[in-house]
Structures
1.
Amino acid sequence: MIVRALLLFSALALTLSCVTARAVEPLPSWNDTSPRKTIIAFVEKVTKEGSPDFVPAPERIATFDNDGTLWVEQPMYFQALFIFDRIKALAPQHPEWESKEPFASVLKGDVNAALAGGEKALLEMAMATHADMTTAEFDDIVRNWIATARHPKTGRLYTEMVYQPMLELLAYLRASGFKTFIVSGGGIEFMRPWTERVYGIPPEQVVGSSIKTKYEVRGGRPALVRLPELNFIDDGGGKPIGIQAHIGRRPLIAVGNSDGDFEMLEWTVSGGGSRLALIVHHTDGTREFQYDRESHVGRLDKALDVAERRGWIIVDMKRDWRRIYPSEPDGK
Amino acid sequence: MIVRALLLFSALALTLSCVTARAVEPLPSWNDTSPRKTIIAFVEKVTKEGSPDFVPAPERIATFDNDGTLWVEQPMYFQALFIFDRIKALAPQHPEWESKEPFASVLKGDVNAALAGGEKALLEMAMATHADMTTAEFDDIVRNWIATARHPKTGRLYTEMVYQPMLELLAYLRASGFKTFIVSGGGIEFMRPWTERVYGIPPEQVVGSSIKTKYEVRGGRPALVRLPELNFIDDGGGKPIGIQAHIGRRPLIAVGNSDGDFEMLEWTVSGGGSRLALIVHHTDGTREFQYDRESHVGRLDKALDVAERRGWIIVDMKRDWRRIYPSEPDGK
């Protein structure tokens, strides 16, 4: 009898907690402007059984860009800052870097000179810091960096510079039966060590750029060795390719913030039925950073031109977000 | 009051149904021999909170080979049979195939002659039948074939030639908080159209071999076009690479049946903590097919040699499985 009473009690508690959870308004850090209303209306219609727009839970896929969509990307992509920090850390083992560009400029603290070498220079620095170690070793390096490195402007940990409204959107979608994925131009193994803790997105739901790896048994211990050779660039037209390769279904919702997300948004909304494309527009120079068409990082130009015509929703950070970071007090 | 009573009632019903579900014995089509006992003891210890072997649910990853592990692979890989059927279907559009090997032999019904060209011939046939169409078109072709094509020996649909004990193992693991993945040398897009229906494994949990794709907007409609170029071979040392690329975590359990699974099993058990590696040994020539060291398809030689020493569990189909196919009556 006691067992039965306990069962009843715990079952009741469960039921009540579900009821309570549902009563909370979704997306509290969003102002009740058009994007919030559109998102909620969309989620309600695709999750309502019997609705003509109903989509079964396994097909509810939502893909999110990372840089500039889930976390800040200014003054430059955080992975570039990671590369510079790694070059400094590795310099003692590479005396030749003191006189070899682009490394020499990084070591002198002149990042702009280092980046003047364009894509080739960036790739060279990426390979020098991301390859020739095992996947486990790289995972450790990223974990240590992300736990201690701080943003040059705010002095905050990078994982504190994520967007509170986006954390709420991820949680709201998951509570509505969606599976949330990251689809980012950033390195897949640069994101996985912390996306589960910060975004609730497990490693198997992270899609990103990658280098090749090799399976090797070293002294009886198997390892995956990271090779200095590009495998896949998950940007632009690469995003639909990465989505197909990893997920194998077209998203219902895609969220991005730059022209690198153009093809992901286009691919998503052309899937037939109800689909939603969102673009985060960085309009708030006071609370965050203000940039779009002319920015070298996260340029938003072509996608901004077609958004209205194609029915893609522009999220105006200044107008639509009540709060930017988790650490901020609620309200403007 | 009525509402509250209803809530209580439905909550109680839920609780009781959970209790009932747990009371059912797992793995009913397995004889109660050593493999079944080992699997159950393993699952109980890694899922028991407070146990020194406890593993949190998000880290409970199980990977399964497909050919010869989840479904039959004799008299040859079913995807090869698909290729031959496609060559016959496409022949009218390729009059040149009548005199061009390996196609000419396939059209004459002499599959062995076609395969005499080795890997090069197989690759040529694969590309001729898998590429130069969109991903959506290929998906349709696979769906139609898998719904109608029949096994040359049994006359059954291929999806009926899956192993009942493995369906039960997949379900048991999922009920124990595991996420189940396929990690197969077969084509990823050849499996995805039916793995959810047949195995309960959604497209995003299928890892396999692939060809390259290209994003293209054709007449205003975006498409992913399949290119006649290999992208990745998910076999041998490719399996740990594919696991890392798609899942980003090491499995707790890996199940295979051939030397192509060797590295996946090795990678899995070397992950530290409690891990389980299983090898399906095809020992039942009456109910299924009997083969191992000398077989051209699904050769099991090197893995058989080391299994005992490394603690990999051999599942002897004849001894350990009470039932092979879902359609069979229970019991021998």
Note: The interface with chain B takes residues 7-8, 10-12, 14-16, 19, 58, 61, 135, 179, 188-189, 192, 196, 202-206, 210, 213-215, 217, 221-222, 224, 237-238, 240-241, 244-249, 263, 266-267, 270 of chain A (CB under 8 Å).
2.
Amino acid sequence: MNEVIKLLKSHRSIRKFGDQPIAPEILDELLTAGQAAATSSFIEASTVIRVCNPETRQKLVEYSGGQHYVASAAEFLVFCADLSRAGMCCDMQNVEQEKGFTEHFIIATVDVALMAQNVTIAAESLGLGICYIGGLRNNPQGVSELLDLPDQVYPVFGYCLGYPDQDVDLRPRLPLAVVLKQERYNTKGDQDAITGYDKIVEQYYEKRLGGGKSMTWSKQVAGLAGKEARPHMLPYLQSKGFLKR
Amino acid sequence: MNEVIKLLKSHRSIRKFGDQPIAPEILDELLTAGQAAATSSFIEASTVIRVCNPETRQKLVEYSGGQHYVASAAEFLVFCADLSRAGMCCDMQNVEQEKGFTEHFIIATVDVALMAQNVTIAAESLGLGICYIGGLRNNPQGVSELLDLPDQVYPVFGYCLGYPDQDVDLRPRLPLAVVLKQERYNTKGDQDAITGYDKIVEQYYEKRLGGGKSMTWSKQVAGLAGKEARPHMLPYLQSKGFLKR
């Protein structure tokens, strides 16, 4: 295992940050490393909004369901999927933009995630810590108004960045055999493997939360998949010109 | 710039691979490094299908629009967004799965992209090369049948992996100022910056393709955004239980 793979395997989300600011040239370096990730058909559909203003940060804490580290992290970035820039290209070339295709939505969303993950690796290689904030999708309309997001742009996730002020245990992961299938999709052995994994996750939570609460992986996932999830997302996205066809 | 950031910035897609196979323990290592990426709400919604069978590979070449490296790469992986496993968790917990939420689709798609990008960095740190194959979405129904993908699973992209047998120039990227906005979304200066970038991209293509064909970035992006894009994706995804609400 080389140093890079060791670094990748040491990822954990950080939610408590020290006061130390990040030098502007380091932030630029991280984002440039992010841009180097693959981009579908060279579309470069990511836009990152750097939010420093404390009032805006505070609103974003609120919109993301009270995650205070959105305010306290040295940097807070909003990673947006951006097809509006492609629209500018269409204007420059006197071409009518074809909007609303699900395929374009996927392309832009994947572009953003690939870029952000590169930023993550670059940040962690410098001793920084990060946390993805999917919670921004609690109130994407509020975020859009706050950050002036135009049509064809949506906030995929927020992103806290700073020097860690906590030590966090590695979270377990599913056995590779569950995630990696040979030749075809099949679920042979998965339920047994998940039952075994449930015990590992239960121990992890016991250690982390100090007994009392018993939580397994399948229980947590069933809790998520068994209830409605941000039902405003589809109407919101359609209002922004996405996912119409 | 440290070695990790140097590695990130040296990414290029590889489409010509040597014959050298990848040792199974290395492949496992790459995928385990992939699993270490962040996962939304701990859902672990990625499934990777490793395709070795030459006939299956050949079909996938066809489905992805004739990209021959899908057959010739040492390894070909299909990265799937998988909410079917969450359904198994619901069954194990006697909970009814709530299907079709756009939010769950985003969570699973982002999960896959974060994992894949980790695999990419791990692979490149070992001198391997990769290429994302969005072209699998040309025929997602064919891919689904070929690989027995059940409801609640879709192929986000394919993935070629192997030892590079070509030297590829770095592709340019947009000036950071276009991609990184301060405090709020705005497009001030973007069109001028894109006009400048167009010249850089034009030179890149001239060098790569040896004159004759003149292609700028805005022209290429307008070509993509100005025409319909895989209009089958929405009905296909809905047929798999995604994006219904």
Note: Chain B has a mean pLDDT of 97.
